Amino acid sequence: MKARAIHPSLVSLLTTAGMALAMASPAAAQAGPAATAVTPRAAPSRTLQAWNMPPAQVSTWGLGDAAAQALNAPFWGMQEITGGDSVAHDMFGNAVAVSGATAVVGASSANVDGRTEQGAAYVYTRQNGVWTQTAKLVASDGTSEDYFGYAVAIDGDTIAVGAWDHNSDRVDGGVYIFTRTGGTWSQTAKLAPGDQGAAISSFGKAVALAGPSMVLVGAPDALTCDANNENCITGAVYVFQDDAGAWSQTQKFSANETVWADHFGTALAVSAGDTLLVGDPADDFNGFQAGAAYLFRLTNGLWGETQQLIPDSIEEHGAFGSAVALDGNMALVSAAGATVNGVTDSGTVYAFRQSDGTWSQVQKLQGLQAATGAGIAFGASLALSGKTALVGAPWDSLTANDEQGSAYLFTRTGCSWVQQQRLSLGASAHFEDNFGIAVALDGGDSALAGAWGRSVGGNTSQGAVYAFTDNDSLFADGFEDGCM
């Protein structure tokens, strides 16, 4: 079995959490840790009906075991999305973000004009339920092994793309800004840290937009030391703002509790432009690499820490803060390395709610099937929109195809989350597709899930993204139910 694929935001945390990684080169880091045995479980599938999409785009989805079938999940239409010029080993779908009817997909290992693993990003728009490619984005100064597209974010007509290894060896990194004018996307800025070249930073491993004119960049390997080059801490978030087309860094910060060997800034999520959730899955404060997550509030143009989130059950190597999602007064934080029913690396997601300015845990989420799955990394990716949540489990094995991956759909009634469906590629799944490596919700009636290990047309690990369309009004938005 080949090396297991790792979600970009999980590379550093799983290294520190004890999962063996072949780190001979940046490419090896993306390839992931050594594979572990996973018990195959059969998953029946159903053929879908088509909703507003050509017959060639209709595929199957897996219902999983009898417990999942009992959920009375609705049928979904599914479209396979690939890059127009993607080839083998592009790992298209390693990152995905959506804003309204526009989506952006990362392909961080794509070769560009002969430059190995420079990386690219693809833009799609949706019309009549069908996603169509409208642009391909590349860096104006891209070089080999930049991994452009490692992280992506979109807000309206603004896209941010991270290239964490730009300038090589994890020093510096870069983030590129693209804007849409008259339907055409063009690069309008390149962002670099103000302390550029000072030390390893991995700047751009995570990106988030707090509106179209503010970008937050995670640099989980960034070192910040005192004047004597002592008391160093690891991990930071950089803030950039646009002023009439000129972008400048306005802030760099870490959590008050951040120390050496943390990875603060591994995951970022913004809500309403003024609330930020940051994951630090290597934090040792509550146990060796147990992880942590922190909330920040934007006040008078500066971000300030307001609270550290601590789950009711936290464990060493649990990697709490692996992925984060935030919408209004509800937050989700995953611990992708958590042990469930005695099985390590099964993963758990914690739901928090804000009331009267204080965030408190309200629930612990575990997929019905994930609760007994070995090493499936439930919570490797998260998406949250209103009363709907999507949880990726990219190493899930539903059939004899190990690590084909899945994504678990939850909806909320009041303050309680209930699993509604387990999405997968069903009978069409391949070995190590890693479906669910990245997930996104558009806030309406569709969900996107990346499968960066998917072989397409005989091209190994070309990658694909799958768009699911709700046909039964399963999505629910808003907070009018008394929980918020």
Q: What keywords describe this structure?
A:
single chain, 484 residues, mainly beta, four-stranded antiparallel sheet, 43% strand
pLDDT averaged over residues: 81
The number of helical elements comes to 3
The major pleated sheet works out as: 4 strands, antiparallel
Low-confidence region ranges: 1-75
Q: What share of the residues lie within helices?
A: under 10%
Q: Which strand order does the major sheet show?
A: 3-30-29-28
Number of DSSP-assigned strands: 30
Shape: globular
Q: How big a fraction of the residues is strand?
A: 35-45%
Radius of gyration: 20 Å
Cα separation of the termini: 47 Å
Q: Based on helices, strands and strand pairing, what is the structural class?
A: mainly beta
Ordered list of secondary-structure elements with their pairings:
Blueprint: H1 11-16, H2 26-31, E1 45-47, E2 60-62, H3 66-69, E3 76-81, E4 95-99, E5 102-107, E6 120-127, E7 130-137, E8 148-155, E9 158-163, E10 174-181, E11 184-191, E12 206-209, E13 214-224, E14 233-243, E15 246-253, E16 267-271, E17 275-280, E18 292-299, E19 302-309, E20 320-327, E21 330-335, E22 348-355, E23 358-365, E24 381-385, E25 388-393, E26 406-413, E27 416-423, E28 435-441, E29 446-451, E30 464-470
Antiparallel strand pairs: 1-2, 3-30, 4-5, 5-6, 6-7, 8-9, 9-10, 10-11, 12-13, 13-14, 14-15, 16-17, 17-18, 18-19, 20-21, 21-22, 22-23, 24-25, 25-26, 26-27, 28-29, 29-30
